[in-house]
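so ive been stuck on this for like two days lol. basically i have the seq below and the ligand is adenosine-5'-triphosphate, smiles is in there too. i just want the complex predicted, nothing fancy, no docking runs or whatever. if the output looks off dont worry ill sanity check it later, just need somthing to start from for the group meeting slides
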Amino acid sequence: MVQAVMDKQFEQAAGRESILSVRDLTVGFGDNIVLDKLNLDVLRGEILGFVGASGTGKSVLMRTVLRLLPKRSGTIKILGAEYDKVSEEERIALDMRLGVLFQHGALFSALTVRENIQVPMREYLDLPQELMDELARLKIELVGLAPEAAEKYPSELSGGMIKRAALARALALDPDLVFLDEPTSGLDPIGAAEFDELIAKLRDTLGLTVYMVTHDLDSLFSVCDRIAVLGQKRVLVEGTIEDMLACDEPWVKSYFRGKRARAIVREHG
Ligand SMILES: Nc1ncnc2c1ncn2[C@@H]1O[C@H](COP(=O)(O)OP(=O)(O)OP(=O)(O)O)[C@@H](O)[C@H]1O
């Protein structure tokens, strides 16, 4: 009851719709409870950065929200609908409103960039090839790849291009919410900063909501509107970067006020 009141207040204070709402989520493997009664809101139009020490369950949470892992208990609402309670048809409609960029891109190596982008279109829509080609061309442009990238295979692309191609695929169905699993890992600092800029641009131009698991302090400082910290099997702290800098929870303090973070704070003024 108290939680429900707090949730309502939180949403009202933010004045925005909660596009993903997780309540009392418990997930475990055998005796290993990874997430215990976890609560989380992602608000429409925000970039939420999700951090936490290695092994705290960031991937498990993302995979559970995407229904790739089963939950023990709790509710997950996407765009106000609870997966468990809707028809198969509505479930498919909900799936179409989500995009995912897995770590390392995870493109199909035997398919060109254009064909990769068309995979979700083939899975969910019945469109003529010409229209799919036009849509793929638009997505390629949207993520800042050259038109020639369309007919290239993943092995012919740089790490940064693979991330962009994977993002284009995640955007294939014009989702409301995209999940990015460590999108800047493996990129050099310039490539990572460019990718961050792209994410911010897409949020601004498409009104996209972004759920980003990241270890990248630069991303957390430069593009995330809010940050959620996972620890002790739940969301330990959530708020703006200023909230993180003011937080005295030991892990948050060492992460956001460590040597590397201090250098970034100086950079970002
Ligand atoms: N399929 C699985 N079967 C059993 N245990 C699992 C499975 N997937 C994850 N775990 C366990 O869940 C815990 C959380 O793992 P998870 O990969 O979510 O951590 P993480 O926070 O994403 O870590 P990192 O930052 O290193 O990627 C770990 O103890 C891991 O061993």
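The CA atoms of residues 92 and 124 lie 8 Å apart. The radius of gyration is 19 Å.
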